[in-house]
Write a structure and sequence with these properties.
The structure holds 2 protein chains of 2 kinds. Chain A has helices at 7-23, 26-34, 41-51, 69-82, 88-102, 107-116, 228-263, 275-301, 306-335, 345-358, 363-376; strands at 121-124, 140-144, 147-158, 165-171, 182-188, 194-200, 206-217, 222-224, 265-266, 269-270. By secondary structure, chain A is of the alpha+beta class. The chains are: A alpha+beta, B alpha+beta.
């Protein structure tokens, strides 16, 4: 049993933390969010070249530093603490995940682009009708000569405005909700017929509605013709990474609330002296600590077999989703009116926590998934 | 015990329904449906129509322009306006300062302020909270010092800052709690002043909130000259008015009728949005259970409010029990917004402020209801903070109801 980090992992954390401390303070982030571009391409370049963190979670033979999911966890937690916008989740965790697990012929060169900071990826998986059922696909991929033609509409593709490439799920066969026939494609976002409608998100990021209108993609765009298991695996990894981001967000919500309660005076004393608020902040602390534990657990188990992995990730997401709500809401409540303002960072952490609650599945979704894996499968 | 409406009450309900159907401004309805931001005139148009009809201030005594409705009629009124999604009448004049003026004001003050409050010609703001005085309202520091003007008349010189002042950007007048005796015990040196916001030295600065709205403001007073006749009730007795007003504010805060409408809306949304299994979300047992629990809690709140109303009709003013209505009412409002956001799924994320939502009908961005789901969820967190935070309401119940 060992919950310690290796020297390399600690170095990744220190490198990221120190960069973000110097260059990603709250005011800088505010400027990034309200800029035309919505992200800092030069920071992305720095992540690749100066910090070298984009390769941390790839094996050495793939051109990385030899790490894995724990490195992703570390980066995502630090990103959570600074509410970083730049597309690590889409590019490294998800894009990288598909490259690692698919046996895709072009994987080595795509990973080279990811690690080098020249390839950015957004994951177009959600559809308007599908909620959290990834195999529910109206988007179709029809064989056309050696290549494919894509048609359909992908919902809320986070990071698409910053992406050079999209990973797209589309039906290569079967009916809309079948498990079989879930194709996965890696495509250049600038292909003719890819129509994007870009917009900001409530937590400061950018996303697009992505429409495929008779998009011809070459044969080598196909990552998998029948890849639901692959999709499930990568989304589980991404969910674990989002858990780590949540841990960063939750820690800041809790810390910020403690600080505020100690300095805010009412009735002649710091409000931190009121027992009702002390107990609330203790409960917040317990939620944060349980989220940390569950994120470690899920990150370690993400490399186990599919059933174990899915159960661990869903259990984590239930706990973390609940923590996001409880800690977020009470952080605002204890800050009083100040918590409601755009001016203080605390509200921005709350907004991110609120979206993480539903990201890759709500609490209800993961409870149902856990029940199915833990009870129904055993019966 | 009898839960039925009388035939007279049912006839009244039909009359109200017909009036709303015939008179509610169509343009306003459209703006609400589009989720557009309300301009000052939008808030006022419905107010003015009701003022003309004599229905704008249901709880006011007839001698001051109230319609003379029974508590049951007032209940029907709030049900029907919520059911028809009418914009709420802003509380600051009608529910807050109006009752203070007709309860504590002089005949001159009533004559001067009540008619324009009813008509909508005065837009009132509420000057209570200060940066250092939130839950602990009595610690407020804005000071008002008596002096004799060059004209030989008596004035107050007001200096200080109020905050969280809702819609003060439109305000004509502001009612303020100010400290008139710095040496008295904390609740005893406070007076209740009406201040013309066009007076020199009054500055309104916007506060932008989580959803990007400009709803609240800071209001600064720098050497603002206020005639002494603008003080309501005795000098240094403003806390009496404040306590009276807080009780009034709390009684309306349950928002039962609006929450009923909110739950109805969730049921509509969840009958078209799809759940994980591809059938309507409302068929999802977990989602359905949450809606059911909300409905049950709202029923408990509704009958608690009805008991309070019956008590009022029997001559008992809104007492500290109304804190129960505030706590449960705001919790339910918040849970409604949580469920709407949950129903929105992925489409809770897009942010539309300052973003054109029409113009590209071929490429829509999610269902219309989802556009305001997250900002509304964020915004409604305020309800357990304002009007005396829910922690303060529990203190009130502990002390005043339970005698602890």
């Amino acid at each position: 049993m060992d919950f310690n980090f290796t020297e390399e992992q600690s170095m990744v954390r220190d490198t990221v933390a120190s960069f973000l401390r110097d260059k990603y303070d709250f005011d800088t982030r505010r400027k990034i969010v309200s800029s035309d571009a919505g992200w800092r391409a030069d920071y992305w370049k720095a992540f690749a070249e100066e910090l070298g963190i984009l390769g941390a979670s790839f094996s050495e033979e793939l051109g990385g530093l030899g790490g894995g999911p724990i490195d992703n966890m570390i980066v995502m937690e630090e990103f959570g603490k600074a509410l970083v916008i730049e597309p690590y989740l889409g590019t490294v965790v998800i894009g990288g995940g598909f490259m690692k697990h698919s046996g895709y012929a072009g994987a080595a060169s795509v990973i080279e682009g990811i690690v080098g900071g020249t390839t950015t990826i957004a994951f177009a998986y959600a559809e308007p009708q599908a909620r959290y059922t990834w195999r529910d696909l109206k988007t179709t991929a029809k064989k056309d000569g050696s290549g494919w033609v894509l048609n359909g509409h992908k919902a809320v593709v986070v990071g698409a405005p910053f992406a050079s490439h999209l990973i797209v799920t589309a039906r290569t066969g079967g009916a809309q909700r079948d498990a079989g026939g879930v194709g996965v494609f890696l495509i250049d976002k600038n292909l003719p017929g890819v129509v994007t409608r870009d917009y900001p998100t409530v937590d400061g990021n950018r996303a697009s509605e992505v429409y495929f209108e008779n998009v011809s993609v070459p044969a080598d765009a196909l990552i998998s013709e029948d890849g639901l298991d692959l999709v499930d695996r990568v989304i589980d990894e991404a969910t674990a990474a989002v858990g780590a981001e949540a841990v960063g967000v939750l820690r800041k919500l809790h810390e910020g609330t403690l600080d505020y309660a100690k300095q805010r005076k009412q009735f002649g004393t710091a409000i931190a002296n009121f027992q009702v608020l002390q107990h609330r902040m203790v409960d917040m602390f317990i939620e944060v600590e349980q989220s940390v534990s569950m994120t470690y657990m899920a990150t370690i188990k993400v490399e186990e077999d599919a059933a174990e992995r899915a159960k661990a990730v869903s259990a984590m997401k239930v706990r973390v989703g609940r923590a996001c709500k409880f800690v977020g809401q009470n952080a605002i409540q204890i800050h009083g009116g100040m918590g409601m303002t755009d001016e203080l960072a605390i509200g921005h952490y709350f907004k991110r926590a609120s979206l993480i609650e539903g990201l890759f599945g709500s609490v209800d979704h993961h409870l149902k998934r856990y029940e199915a894996l833990s009870f129904d499968a055993a019966a | 015990m009898n839960l039925d409406f009388s035939p007279e009450d049912l006839a009244f309900r039909d009359e109200v329904r017909a009036f709303i159907a015939e008179n509610y401004p169509a343009g306003l309805r459209e703006k609400q449906e589009e989720g557009e931001e309300m301009a000052k005139e939008d808030f006022l148009s419905w107010h003015r129509i009701l003022a003309k009809k004599g229905w704008v201030a249901p709880a006011w005594p007839t001698q001051y322009g109230g319609p003379g409705w029974t508590s049951v009629q007032r209940y029907i009124w709030s049900e029907e306006t919520a059911r028809a999604d009418c914009v709420p009448i802003l509380p600051f004049g009608i529910n807050m300062v109006g009752p203070v003026i007709y309860t504590f004001g002089t005949p001159e003050q009533k004559e001067r302020f009540l008619p324009p409050t009813l008509s909508g010609d005065i837009w009132w703001s509420q000057g209570y909270s200060e940066p250092g005085a939130g839950s602990d309202l009595a610690s407020l520091k804005t000071k008002a010092e008596r002096f004799t003007g060059d004209d030989g008349k008596e004035y107050y010189l007001v200096n200080g800052q109020k905050t969280w002042t809702t819609l003060a950007q439109h305000g004509d007048w502001i009612f303020c709690l100010v400290r008139t005796d710095p040496n008295a015990k904390i609740q005893e040196g406070i007076s209740f002043l009406l201040i013309d916001m066009k007076s020199p030295g009054v500055t309104v600065r916007p506060i932008i909130t989580l959803g990007g709205e400009h709803e609240v403001n800071e209001v600064w007073f720098e050497n603002v000259k206020v005639p002494v006749e603008n003080r309501i009730f005795e000098e240094n007795k403003g806390w009496t008015c404040a306590k009276f007003l807080l009780a009034h504010e709390r009684s309306g805060i349950a928002g039962v009728a609006r929450s009923k409408r909110g739950i109805e809306r969730i049921r509509q949304i969840a009958s078209t949005e799809l759940g994980d299994d591809g059938s309507a979300l409302i068929k999802d047992p977990m989602f359905k259970r949450k809606v059911a629990e909300l409905e049950i809690d709202l029923t408990a709140l509704e009958y608690t409010e009805l008991r309070t109303l019956a008590g009022e009709a029997a001559g008992k003013g809104p007492g500290p029990e109304s804190s129960v209505l505030k706590i449960k009412g705001t919790e339910i409002q918040q849970r409604i917004t949580e469920l709407v956001l949950e129903a929105a799924g992925h489409y809770g994320a897009p942010y539309f402020r300052g973003f054109p939502t029409d113009g590209d009908n071929a490429h829509p961005i999610g269902p219309d209801f989802a556009h305001r789901a997250a900002p509304t969820y964020f915004n409604v967190r305020k309800t357990s903070i304002y009007g005396g935070s829910n922690e303060i309401q529990r203190n009130i119940i502990a002390k005043m109801v339970l005698g602890l």
